[in-house]
Amino acid sequence: MIALLIFSSVLEISSKNIYNYLIFVATWLGLTAIYEVYKYSTKYTLEDDGVHVKSPLKSNLIYYHNIRDVFMTEGFLQRRFGLSSVYIITPKEAIAVRDLNNGKEFLNLIEDRIGRARTD
């Protein structure tokens, strides 16, 4: 939203192009809404045999024996809002579980399941 406001401030909006500007704003907000719905509908659950990633488009099970590394990061804004991101590294891909309220707990549960020392 901030980017839209900054971008809009440098545009020359007149009565001739106001219709095009409104189409641009509607498209921007629509795509942002679609992204937010997709992001918040993706669920990560810890099961007995792996981490189950369920999104609207696909479902994936990451087995614990395939996990090579797992770590947590916190950016400036994430710390400010009490959030963190956990990254799960497998031989084929890296899965980012972003903006978790309980990132340390999620990380410790995965580390327990893969047999690594807990990160406290």
Rg calc: 20 Å
What's the CATH class label of the largest domain? Answer: Mainly Beta
Can you tell me the residue ranges where pLDDT is under 50 for at least 5 consecutive residues? none
The coarse silhouette is: elongated
- What is the typical, i.e. mean, pLDDT? 87
The span between the termini is 36 Å
* CATH topology (level 3) name of the largest domain: OB fold (Dihydrolipoamide Acetyltransferase, E2P)
Give the helix/strand class: alpha+beta
Order of helices and strands: HHEEEEHEEH
Arrangement of strands in the largest sheet:
1-2-3
Integer tally of domains: 2
The helix tally amounts to 4
Largest sheet: 3 strands, antiparallel
Please report the total strand number as a whole number: 6
How much helix, percentage-wise, in residues? 40-55%
Beta fraction = 25-35%
Q: What would you say the CATH architecture of the largest domain is?
A: Beta Barrel
How would you characterize this protein structure?
The chain is α+β, with helices and mostly antiparallel strands and 120 residues long. It folds into 2 domains: 41 residues; 76 residues, OB fold (Dihydrolipoamide Acetyltransferase, E2P) (Beta Barrel). The protein is built from 4 helices and 6 strands; from the N terminus they run H-H-E-E-E-E-H-E-E-H. The strands form 2 sheets. A 3-stranded antiparallel beta sheet has the order 1-2-3, with no helix packed on it. A 3-stranded antiparallel beta sheet has the order 4-5-6, covered by helices on one side. A hairpin with a 3-residue loop joins strand 1 and strand 2. The longest helix is centred in the first third of the chain and has 24 residues. The chain is elongated. The protein starts with a helix and ends in a 6-residue tail after the last helix.
